[in-house]
Amino acid sequence: MISRILVQDVAIRRGERLLFQGLSFTVSAGEAVALTGRNGAGKTSLLRAVAGLLRPAAGSVAFEGGEADAPPGSHLHLLGHLDGLKGGRTAWEELRFAALWQGGTEASAREAASALELDRLLDLEVRKLSAGQRRRLALARLLAAPRAAWLLDEPLAPLDSVWRARTGELMAAHLARGGMILAAVHDPLPVPARAVEVGA
Ligand SMILES: Nc1ncnc2c1ncn2[C@@H]1O[C@H](COP(=O)(O)OP(=O)(O)OP(=O)(O)O)[C@@H](O)[C@H]1O
């Protein structure tokens, strides 16, 4: 399992615009980092760069620790604010597929569904879930297959206060296992986190 993410002197360009440059920080095992910054500052773009989906205009993203040379996708989960769920499939089909695709099992998918109290919603098509239920399904995928790093884009946005607190417990358990969290946020994370400002 990787034990550190190193972001070194990174610049991100979208189209003609240089969003930011010279950004450096690390995320170590057991640590949460909150990416802050104004709308359009480049927080989502930075998460995509860390996930290996967007090439920085300068600088580098590296992983340290066990199997650090494996593809970035094998170290991390990326939860975007659109959830990445297919509306026409049932919640169970989506969760089971994600678990098996990422090295989990049907049993781990069931466990994850229970942790997010989705058991009674699993037969519903994703498009019939509320925004908060959909986000809980997306969060269940984080648990269904273990990954060292969780990259989260506004993870709490559609959740009510009960589920914000519950998500905080899931995050704390992930950190206690030596996991890492890198989250783009406008509201504080429900776990202690170091803030890194993007586009300052
Ligand atoms: N594919 C793209 N092509 C060109 N510009 C893009 C593309 N994707 C994003 N951008 C631009 O890059 C800038 C940064 O977007 P990004 O989503 O990374 O910001 P953000 O900090 O996450 O914003 P927010 O807080 O509003 O979610 C925005 O101005 C956006 O319009």
TrEMBL record:
<dbReference type="GO" id="GO:0005524">
    <property type="term" value="F:ATP binding"/>
</dbReference>
<protein>
    <submittedName>
        <fullName>Heme ABC exporter ATP-binding protein CcmA</fullName>
    </submittedName>
</protein>
<dbReference type="GO" id="GO:0017004">
    <property type="term" value="P:cytochrome complex assembly"/>
</dbReference>
<feature type="domain" description="ABC transporter">
    <location>
        <begin position="5"/>
        <end position="198"/>
    </location>
</feature>
<dbReference type="InterPro" id="IPR005895">
    <property type="entry name" value="ABC_transptr_haem_export_CcmA"/>
</dbReference>
<dbReference type="Pfam" id="PF00005">
    <property type="entry name" value="ABC_tran"/>
</dbReference>
<keyword id="KW-0201">Cytochrome c-type biogenesis</keyword>
<keyword id="KW-0813">Transport</keyword>
<dbReference type="InterPro" id="IPR003593">
    <property type="entry name" value="AAA+_ATPase"/>
</dbReference>
<keyword id="KW-0067">ATP-binding</keyword>
<dbReference type="InterPro" id="IPR017871">
    <property type="entry name" value="ABC_transporter-like_CS"/>
</dbReference>
<dbReference type="GO" id="GO:0022857">
    <property type="term" value="F:transmembrane transporter activity"/>
</dbReference>
<dbReference type="GO" id="GO:0016887">
    <property type="term" value="F:ATP hydrolysis activity"/>
</dbReference>
<dbReference type="InterPro" id="IPR027417">
    <property type="entry name" value="P-loop_NTPase"/>
</dbReference>
<keyword id="KW-0472">Membrane</keyword>
<dbReference type="InterPro" id="IPR003439">
    <property type="entry name" value="ABC_transporter-like_ATP-bd"/>
</dbReference>
<keyword id="KW-1278">Translocase</keyword>
<keyword id="KW-0547">Nucleotide-binding</keyword>
